[in-house]
Amino acid sequence: MTNPVTKNYAHFEDLFVDQKIDLGATKVTKEMIFEFATEFDPFPFHLDEEAANASLLGGLSASGWHTGAIALAMLLENLPSKLATAGGVGFTNLKWKRPVMVNDTIGGTVTISEMRRVKSRPEWGLITLDFDIRNQKDQQVMTMSLKNLVDVRNPAAPIGEALK
Amino acid sequence: MTRWFEDITVNEPHALGSHTFSEEEMIRFSNKYDNQYYHTDPELAPHSHFGGLIASGWHTACVGHRYMVDFLFEVERQLLDAGEKPGISGPSPGINSMSFTTPVRDGDTVSYEMTITSKRKSASVPGWGLLIVQIKATNQRGELVYTQESAGFSKLRDFKPTLKMRFMEWAIKQPLLRKFLTKR
Questions:
Q1: Could you tell me the CATH superfamily of domain B5-157?
Q2: ipTM for the complex?
Q3: Residue B115 — very low, low, confident or very high, per pLDDT cuts 50/70/90?
């Protein structure tokens, strides 16, 4: 039973370990910071420019959750082709290394660090995506390892050991 | 805001509140940050193995974060009402692990619970303690939606900063000195 939505999307077989996806660039504006923080992270240093200027960071910074959400959006936008994903399983080692300040431009790369078939579900593969998010000064602002399920085009193919 | 490091009790669960997810807000979030058809398109989503539209896991976690922030503000208000000086919660260095276990669908009500599972004085940042914070999200059927373990800083009340630290704290607040001190 082929999924009509994803039949022309890239599948597990089309990916490879060490594949790197360049995330392009996103400028994080005051409006974006306010909008996200109002809904999800209403601390004064994300919401009030004066309070932020007086704080130790010395300026308005984006919520760390916002940085992660933007990174996710940039990954989906910059995949070489749409990917037949089957959902996120979770992530580990998310580190907010530096604040993203207002008008910073963030970008970076996502690298597929690991791929394996799911033994109990031959129709799925599990991939690990290592995020390396940087600002315009090439300073790391966030890293994490996201695990995501991806549809296998040919589930009947033998399930080998991990590809890496 | 919140309690001082010294007053924080370990392994005591705090109910943060419950949130009912609507299809509209799920789609609004995912259109911006997690644009995949099973998060954004109610007509195509039934073709996925989820059988229908589900919330982005990142969305459910961001809502959980919001409930935690509101909880911290509430604790601060209670302490102020009781005539006490609230403590100071610092930035979070990150999230050790997050695992999404049950998808969230239109109309699901997710309850969030926070437990500080351990605390210790920070070795690298004098005057601050490091907390390990666990958040558990459960739906109205009692199914686990996600669990998250993160780290967070919390200021020590019983800490006497050295003269040098007090000078630095003052200096960083002076615009000209700050410019000099934070030059990268």
A1: Hotdog Thioesterase (3.10.129.10)
A2: 0.94
A3: very high
